[in-house]
From TrEMBL:
Residues 61-141 form the Core-binding (CB) domain. It comes from Buttiauxella agrestis. Keywords: DNA integration, DNA recombination, DNA-binding. GO terms for molecular function: DNA binding. The keyword DNA-binding applies. This is Site-specific recombinase XerC. The keyword DNA-binding applies.
Length: 338
């Protein structure tokens, strides 16, 4: 509550603006003081400076400002490039709805309403955006910037585990029409059970005598994938990827300037290859993702689930089981042992 001024003549000044020793000062409700302009300034300038500072103060208390502060934090910069890009993408969806709100005024019911509406278009994206918002609030809560995390207790949509198995016919059809870059990436992902990020980050220095060294970006698991004739052939193929004159590259998969492919850059070429395959092989389905290549590799491996876990580098056997998607052939009654 603003008290009475000592001099009635000062009532022409904005609320919480007072004469200091040499400048007009704005004393916000939360405490402190902000210098505005010299005492001999016209009243119009005093009001202009006050409105500008008040607007800054109000903007600093909304969710958009909190998100921008998170994006500039050390915690954010430690995340992988792909995760940072994803978080900014999720933020761009959330801010038109919540950006101007005080973070402490956002309640679980508001998150639920957003999830329900967003889920009409994509339940998966609604889950991802809610997960980002929860991460933002957790970061802010630990630093005393918010009172609670309104995402707590708000249920995400149930996501069905992928069970898409890429058949040999589908794989070979896509491979036959793909450019060299996509062919090499497909083979490494399939043969080594590797994620796209690890395939694109593979360096020539990681091609060892014993095999191909891969440190999984997601799990941190380090493995050497032993050479096979097919894997050696892929690396030989990769040497034909074009490079500009006088350029070199440290990456197995590289652009003409020697730089590594980004996720988006590679995905655009992957999508073009799938579209070409759809047109040439209309009787086949190419609705699988690049990540499904790893699942095909796990499924095609021979051995027990425990053996597949060791080769795939999964932390738990449950994770391996989710990737083992080939439909099993089982005997019928009376057919056992035949």
């Amino acid at each position: 509550m603003v008290g009475k001024r000592k001099s009635p003549n000062d009532n022409i000044f904005p609320p919480r603006v007072y004469r200091g020793k040499s400048k007009f000062e704005y004393h916000p409700a939360g405490g402190g003081s902000i210098s505005l302009c010299p005492l001999n300034s016209p009243i119009s300038l005093v009001w202009a400076k006050f409105e500008a500072e008040k607007a800054k103060k109000e903007a600093a208390s909304n969710l958009h400002a909190l998100a921008e502060e998170f994006f500039e934090s050390a915690d954010f910069t430690k995340l992988s490039l792909d995760t940072r890009k994803d978080y900014r993408k999720y933020s761009n969806k959330l801010m038109p709805v919540f950006g101007n709100m005080d973070p402490d005024c956002i309640k679980p019911q508001h998150i639920r309403k957003y999830m329900d509406k967003r889920g009409v278009a994509s339940q998966t994206q609604a889950n991802r955006e809610k997960a980002f918002l929860s991460r933002l609030y957790s970061w802010a809560y630990e630093r005393g910037k918010v009172k609670l995390n309104p995402c707590k207790g708000v249920r995400q949509f149930k996501e069905e585990a992928r069970d898409r198995y890429i058949t040999d016919e589908e794989y070979n059809a896509l491979y036959s029409v793909s450019p060299l870059l996509v062919k090499v990436a497909m083979e490494i992902a399939y043969l080594c059970l590797a994620r796209q990020k690890d395939v694109l980050a593979l360096k020539k220095s990681e091609l060892l005598d014993a095999g191909m060294f891969i440190a999984q970006g997601k799990t941190g698991k380090k493995q050497i994938k032993a050479w096979s004739n097919r894997l050696r052939a892929v690396i030989t193929m990769a040497k034909d990827l074009p490079l500009k004159p006088s350029m070199s590259s440290i990456y197995v998969l590289h652009k003409a300037d020697g730089q590594k492919y980004t996720r988006d850059g590679f995905n655009s070429r992957w999508e073009v290859a799938r579209e070409v395959a759809r047109q040439k092989f209309p009787h086949l389905s190419f609705d699988f993702t690049f990540h499904d290549l790893k699942a095909k590799g796990v499924s095609d491996l021979e051995g027990t689930l425990q053996e597949k876990q060791q080769i795939s580098g999964h932390k738990t056997i449950t994770q391996t089981a989710r990737y083992d998607r080939k439909v099993q052939i089982v005997p019928v009654v009376g057919g056992q042992g035949k």
